[in-house]
Amino acid sequence: QPRKLQMTQILAATALSLFTLAAQAAEPAGGFKGPDSLRLVTAAEASTLADDSAVKLQGHIIRSLGDEKYEFRDESGTITVEIDKEDWNGVQATTDTRSEIQGEIDKDWYRPGVEVDVDSVRLLQ
User: Fold this and answer.
1) Contact, 118 vs 83, CB < 8 A?
2) How far apart are CA 3 and CA 90, in angstroms?
3) Is the CB of residue 80 less than 8 Å from the CB of residue 92?
4) pLDDT 10s digits, 64-121
5) What per-residue confidence (pLDDT) applies to 13?
6) Using alpha carbons only, what angle is made at residue 85 by residues 117 and 90, rounded to the nearest 5 degrees?
7) Of the candidates 100, 95, 57, the residue with the CA atom closest to the CA atom of residue 76
8) What is the pTM of this model?
9) DSSP string of the chain?
10) Rounded Cα distance, 59 and 43, in Å
11) I want to staple 107 with a disulfide (CB 3.0 to 4.6 A). Which of 5, 36, 51, 92 is the partner?
12) In a 10 Å sphere around its CB, with 0-12 CB exposed, 13-18 middle and 19+ buried, how is residue 46 labelled?
């Protein structure tokens, strides 16, 4: 009897999981579809913007600084960017790869300087 009860519980948990996944997949993906509202800025401009400002930068990731932080360079200079593993979305970049990053300015009272907290990375042609 205990084995039969255990199998019933496993089947019930599996059915609940499948139902939850199906419900999530059925939810429409909402959001705005239209012109890009992010303003393209340079690294130099980004370093002067207010905390949480949405930005888009184009240039090169030139080196890893560790702890998911990278040095990003464009024609105006460099800025530190933080790219979490899940925000790479499979993109493979090298120092020669021209990339576009989108994210928000991150300023902390306890840390000097400015970073960009990156939401997405894409390769440019």
Assistant:
1) yes
2) 43
3) no
4) 999 999 999 999 999 999 999 999 989 999 999 999 999 999 998 787 889 999 999 9
5) 74
6) 110
7) 57
8) 0.69
9) -HHHHHHHHHHHHHHHHHHHHHHHHHS------SS--PPB--HHHHTTSPTT-EEEEEEEEEEEEETTEEEEEETTEEEEEE--GGGSTT----TT-EEEEEEEEEEETTEEEEEEEEEEEEE--
10) 9
11) 51
12) buried
Contact, 79 vs 69, CB < 8 A? no
Question: Cβ distance 61 to 100 under 8 Å?
Answer: no
Q: What are phi and psi of 16, to 5 degrees?
A: -65, -40
Among candidate residues 59, 50, 63, the one with its CA nearest the CA of residue 101: 59
Question: Do 79 and 72 touch, CB atoms closer than 8 A?
Answer: yes
Q: Give the separation between CA 90 and CA 83, rounded to whole angstroms.
A: 12
Neighbours of 29 (CB within 10 A): 4
Lookup: tokens for 75? 């024609």
pLDDT digits (tens, 9 = 90+) for 52-66: 999 999 999 999 999
Q: Tokens at residue 103, please?
A: 């994210």
